[in-house]
């Protein structure tokens, strides 16, 4: 139960099926209870949602990561938005810790869809007033929306965890060129240098480490990425770092998709510890000893409170 009551009853928080544990934590941190609704399916698989309390004139925040099963969770979210709109909610704010389809953000080949743009269109057409997201795979996805976007970052949370370990000689490593900005942010917080893995990806979910740019010899290397999916990139990078003289390798990411062979690869890799957040809930079979989970509940609840009270959220990036 919440330890204190939030002063504005017009703020309501609802959870769908993707991450109810995180949603409960967020509601408790705000000082409110989760809104009453049921999400079920008809016998043919169609989603049915019933909102069991009045939301008329309220500012509603819906917690839903579009993680596995991605399409099911997207449909739940779209139907919930429609239900809230028809129930006369004043604003419908989508809190999406993990944004599915974010990696399909451009046309890399002829006749490819830009699916992250399609998801943005669907959310807006359904009636979303605002979207709060955490560590988009491509920050420019914010430009796909014509409603306000609040883009939170996980680097401070991950950095604080490693800072408490008091490593002596650290290097922050980006597993590819696209993650250099993220690695630089962590390096600045930990006052450490960076290195870059130069790799080639011949096809989706297959990567090949080519070279290491930067001095990693004898150092504790911390690999940082936004998403770990099949773990091919991160485990090849860790093995390459050890082979090239790193003392030990830690890894971290915001979104632990961890599909297919990911857990086996991580367990058999040179990674000493993988630190993730709970934007995507870890199933029991994925909770191995090497994986440490941090909560983004406090960060998101503070963002919701600040948005509702019309305060700046940029202080959350410090």
Automatic annotation (TrEMBL):
Cofactor: Mg(2+)
Residues binding D-ribose 5-phosphate, per UniProt: 201, 225, 229-233
Residues annotated as domain Ribose-phosphate pyrophosphokinase N-terminal: 11-127
Catalytic residue positions: 199
Enzyme Commission number(s): 2.7.6.1
Pathway field: Metabolic intermediate biosynthesis; 5-phospho-alpha-D-ribose 1-diphosphate biosynthesis; 5-phospho-alpha-D-ribose 1-diphosphate from D-ribose 5-phosphate (route I): step 1/1
Summary of the function given for this chain in its UniProt record: Involved in the biosynthesis of the central metabolite phospho-alpha-D-ribosyl-1-pyrophosphate (PRPP) via the transfer of pyrophosphoryl group from ATP to 1-hydroxyl of ribose-5-phosphate (Rib-5-P).
Subunit and interaction comment: Homohexamer.
Name this protein carries in UniProt: Ribose-phosphate pyrophosphokinase
Family matches, as Pfam families: Pribosyl_synth, Pribosyltran_N
InterPro entries: PRib_PP_synth_CS, Pribosyltran_N, PRTase-like, PRTase_dom, Rib-P_diPkinase, Rib-P_diPkinase_bac
Major localisation: cytoplasm
Catalytic activity: D-ribose 5-phosphate + ATP = 5-phospho-alpha-D-ribose 1-diphosphate + AMP + H(+)
Family: Belongs to the ribose-phosphate pyrophosphokinase family. Class I subfamily.
Note accompanying the cofactor annotation: Binds 2 Mg(2+) ions per subunit.
Residues bound to Mg(2+): 137, 176
EC category: transferase
Domain of life: Bacteria
NCBIfam families: PRK01259.1, PRK02269.1, ribP_PPkin
Organism: Pontibacillus salipaludis
HAMAP family recorded: RibP_PPkinase_B
Binding site for ATP: 44-46, 103-104
The encoding gene: prs
UniProt cross-references to Gene3D superfamilies, sorted A to Z: 3.40.50.2020
Keywords on record: ATP-binding, Cytoplasm, Kinase, Magnesium, Metal-binding, Nucleotide biosynthesis, Nucleotide-binding, Transferase
Subcellular location as annotated: Cytoplasm
């Amino acid at each position: 139960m919440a330890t204190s009551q939030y002063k504005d009853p017009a703020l309501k928080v609802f959870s769908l099926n993707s991450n109810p544990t995180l949603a409960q934590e967020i509601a408790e941190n705000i000082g409110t209870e989760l809104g009453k609704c049921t999400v079920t399916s008809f016998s043919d698989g169609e989603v049915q949602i019933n909102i069991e309390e009045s939301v008329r004139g309220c500012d509603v925040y819906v917690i839903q990561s579009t993680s596995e099963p991605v399409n099911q969770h997207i449909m739940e979210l779209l139907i919930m938005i429609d239900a809230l709109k028809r129930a006369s909610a004043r604003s419908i704010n989508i809190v999406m810790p993990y944004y599915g389809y974010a990696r399909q953000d451009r046309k890399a080949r002829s006749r490819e869809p830009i699916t992250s743009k399609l998801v943005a269109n669907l959310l807006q057409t359904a009636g979303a007033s605002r979207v709060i997201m955490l560590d988009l795979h491509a920050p420019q996805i914010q430009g796909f929306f014509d409603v306000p976007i609040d883009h939170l970052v996980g680097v401070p949370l991950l950095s604080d965890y490693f800072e408490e370990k008091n490593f002596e000689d650290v290097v922050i490593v980006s597993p590819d060129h696209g993650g250099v900005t993220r690695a630089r942010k962590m390096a600045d917080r930990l006052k450490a240098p960076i290195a870059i893995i130069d790799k080639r990806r011949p096809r989706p979910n297959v990567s090949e480490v080519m070279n290491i740019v930067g001095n990693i010899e004898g150092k504790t290397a911390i690999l940082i990425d936004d998403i770990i999916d099949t773990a091919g990139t991160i485990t090849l990078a860790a093995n390459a770092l050890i082979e090239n003289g790193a003392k030990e390798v830690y890894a971290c990411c915001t979104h632990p998709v961890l599909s297919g062979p990911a857990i086996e690869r991580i367990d058999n890799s040179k990674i000493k510890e993988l630190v993730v957040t709970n934007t995507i809930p870890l199933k029991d079979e994925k909770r191995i000893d090497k994986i440490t989970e941090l909560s983004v509940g406090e960060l998101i609840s503070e963002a919701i409170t600040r948005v509702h009270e019309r305060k700046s959220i940029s202080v959350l990036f410090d």
